[in-house]
Amino acid sequence: MSLLEKRWNELADVKDELAERDWFMGTSGNLAIKVSDNPLQFLVTASGKDKRKRTDEDFLLVDEFGRPVGDTHLKPSAETLLHVEIYRRTNAGCSLHVHTIDNNIVSEIYGDQGEVKFKGQELIKAFNKWDEDAVLKIPIIHNYAHIPTLAKAFSEHISEDSGAVLIRNHGITVWGKDAFEAKKVLEASEFLFRYQLRLLEHKPYQLFKVV
Amino acid sequence: MSLLEKRWNELADVKDELAERDWFMGTSGNLAIKVSDNPLQFLVTASGKDKRKRTDEDFLLVDEFGRPVGDTHLKPSAETLLHVEIYRRTNAGCSLHVHTIDNNIVSEIYGDQGEVKFKGQELIKAFNKWDEDAVLKIPIIHNYAHIPTLAKAFSEHISEDSGAVLIRNHGITVWGKDAFEAKKVLEASEFLFRYQLRLLEHKPYQLFKVV
Amino acid sequence: MSLLEKRWNELADVKDELAERDWFMGTSGNLAIKVSDNPLQFLVTASGKDKRKRTDEDFLLVDEFGRPVGDTHLKPSAETLLHVEIYRRTNAGCSLHVHTIDNNIVSEIYGDQGEVKFKGQELIKAFNKWDEDAVLKIPIIHNYAHIPTLAKAFSEHISEDSGAVLIRNHGITVWGKDAFEAKKVLEASEFLFRYQLRLLEHKPYQLFKVV
Amino acid sequence: MSLLEKRWNELADVKDELAERDWFMGTSGNLAIKVSDNPLQFLVTASGKDKRKRTDEDFLLVDEFGRPVGDTHLKPSAETLLHVEIYRRTNAGCSLHVHTIDNNIVSEIYGDQGEVKFKGQELIKAFNKWDEDAVLKIPIIHNYAHIPTLAKAFSEHISEDSGAVLIRNHGITVWGKDAFEAKKVLEASEFLFRYQLRLLEHKPYQLFKVV
């Protein structure tokens, strides 16, 4: 099996798993995995496909500008430029963009503050935060309709080889050294978002009850 | 494979997928897919079947009045007239009627206003709303027990080849040029409804906290 | 295939489906299906089994007193007496007892009133309520630890061949003429409970916003 | 099949089932099953694996100090010491540590009180509480980053052969005489936690409405 096939299968497995959770509602979301560094080439989801099906047209290979490599009738996802920024600026090997109710609600509630913070929650260890007082910050950027502008705003928050950025009312983009790491960061983010929202629902009552 | 078989399989695939999400609770819901334009004929779910099972009695062919084509012991869904309205008035190829908790709650909360609006949410692009300021409106109609009256009220909101209408405390009906498009509109609607309800839960707290 | 085998398979299919929804948490729940009227014999879930697995020890045949028919090391579910009441008093062919979060919460919130009512919700049609003004009432009984006492309180609400009773903080028992009908009543009940709870969450906010 | 293989398969089955529920988000959670008493040896999840896949490197055998038995490149889960405490102090045969939103929220809301109590809920019978007035208490301990300190705090709540302890903002650890019992206690705990949270959401409204 070639490296291309290996990466294709890894990405297809991630897609199947996220699709099973209904994390691609309304054909939303897009995924990418790096295949080579020199030249920079990566697989990205083709536009307009049903992500609950597994076919040999789910992904296509693109270059460092997000343009298809070779002849193809497939169109790269409209948001391919965001993946380009990640592979240009870090050593990440996989990046995932997903819309969920939880990440959209968190991005709206904390949007004006430009970030959401987590502290004292075990799951922040998935972001390599091991101290008992460690704080995890996930930035939230404006959802520019113009993709190059969105990509530029996004790029300002990419420096580490693993990370996460929320786009307001649009979803999250995560990345990691490989598919396993990217998925770990995605799942930990979603857990933290849901935890935070549930806590907001319950803490007021608790205060009301105790005071 | 004939066109009839092809459409049957497409609709059966949609049914399987929605059934897996438990979107047909209590035998609710019905689905349709167009097979020919001249004469107008479409497949529609047969009444009283378990939608979690896949059998060769799940659908039957009906004409432009919703009457069975040919001899059959199967009875078309009681709400077949709503699908008739769609195929008569638009070029849609598939239509789906589904009861979920989210669409029922939204239909009740916004029912008196006759519609629910969405703005600034990425998923409205599934309705071909691409501008940053675009507004999506989904009408909400009264749930008349008399189906022809319901179909008439419903028909007043059908003009485009793709769309969605809520029936108060009853569910949503969506349509699109084919099964893929109809499902996309359905999923995007459900995402938006759940998003809206979750936001209503959290915004009060946020205001309370900030002010 | 004998009638016993046929009924066994029908009940096993229902069990598989409910298990997939996680409606048997902590080994809770029990199911029954009638096999013969003269003498009255029905299959009921054996005690202490993992309902996510399908084995030939999942059910056992019991008589009109809930006692095993023939030699067996299997023990009928502790709540078999409730199923006995149903088959003695009605023509029902299948009965299901299930604990869900929604049915437990509804049973507690409306417990002091002794019943929960639904009106103007399409899904009450699953209970054969077709008028636009029809009201569905589901009784809620006290959860007596002593099973014969519980069975007696339960029996006071069994007269129709299809129905549903909530046991406070314990779950719901539904019945219908066959497995298909019993499952329909169960699903419609769960839909209505979740709908009601979600509406309680949102109506206060709406009032707050509008007034 | 050897006893080791038998236990391996039992634990792998539990892992598959919990993974299907998404109870291992972000690679969280760890599981153990006892293989022998003299010397004490048990299987425990290897560190850094994807728990949604079933492989022959998912678990490894460790001794009474949580050290690998024999040569292996696998690393025992960082929290193996907690499982050690259970097998040293009780006759339990299986122990499960799982992070869910519900158990994390309950651990935070009731964390200052050091325990959460349940009464009058049918599911507490899964903890062998059969009286109508029985009270179930689940202790909540501080989430020490230093694992030996955490294990010591944890050990103070282990005396029975079956039980459950919450670690604040970290998850639950349950144990029972075998995999079936441990899973029953886990499921019953999660049911009770979700029930409790939902009740907190609804009781205030009810009071508001009635008073």
From TrEMBL, chains A, B, C, D:
<protein>
    <recommendedName>
        <fullName>Methylthioribulose-1-phosphate dehydratase</fullName>
        <ecNumber>4.2.1.109</ecNumber>
    </recommendedName>
</protein>
<comment type="similarity">
    <text>Belongs to the aldolase class II family. MtnB subfamily.</text>
</comment>
<keyword id="KW-0028">Amino-acid biosynthesis</keyword>
<keyword id="KW-0456">Lyase</keyword>
<dbReference type="InterPro" id="IPR017714">
    <property type="entry name" value="MethylthioRu-1-P_deHdtase_MtnB"/>
</dbReference>
<feature type="binding site">
    <location>
        <position position="97"/>
    </location>
    <ligand>
        <name>Zn(2+)</name>
    </ligand>
</feature>
<keyword id="KW-0486">Methionine biosynthesis</keyword>
<dbReference type="InterPro" id="IPR001303">
    <property type="entry name" value="Aldolase_II/adducin_N"/>
</dbReference>
<keyword id="KW-0479">Metal-binding</keyword>
<dbReference type="GO" id="GO:0046570">
    <property type="term" value="F:methylthioribulose 1-phosphate dehydratase activity"/>
</dbReference>
<keyword id="KW-0862">Zinc</keyword>
<comment type="pathway">
    <text>Amino-acid biosynthesis; L-methionine biosynthesis via salvage pathway; L-methionine from S-methyl-5-thio-alpha-D-ribose 1-phosphate: step 2/6.</text>
</comment>
<comment type="subunit">
    <text>Homotetramer.</text>
</comment>
<feature type="binding site">
    <location>
        <position position="99"/>
    </location>
    <ligand>
        <name>Zn(2+)</name>
    </ligand>
</feature>
<dbReference type="Pfam" id="PF00596">
    <property type="entry name" value="Aldolase_II"/>
</dbReference>
<feature type="domain" description="Class II aldolase/adducin N-terminal">
    <location>
        <begin position="9"/>
        <end position="197"/>
    </location>
</feature>
<dbReference type="InterPro" id="IPR036409">
    <property type="entry name" value="Aldolase_II/adducin_N_sf"/>
</dbReference>
<comment type="function">
    <text>Catalyzes the dehydration of methylthioribulose-1-phosphate (MTRu-1-P) into 2,3-diketo-5-methylthiopentyl-1-phosphate (DK-MTP-1-P).</text>
</comment>
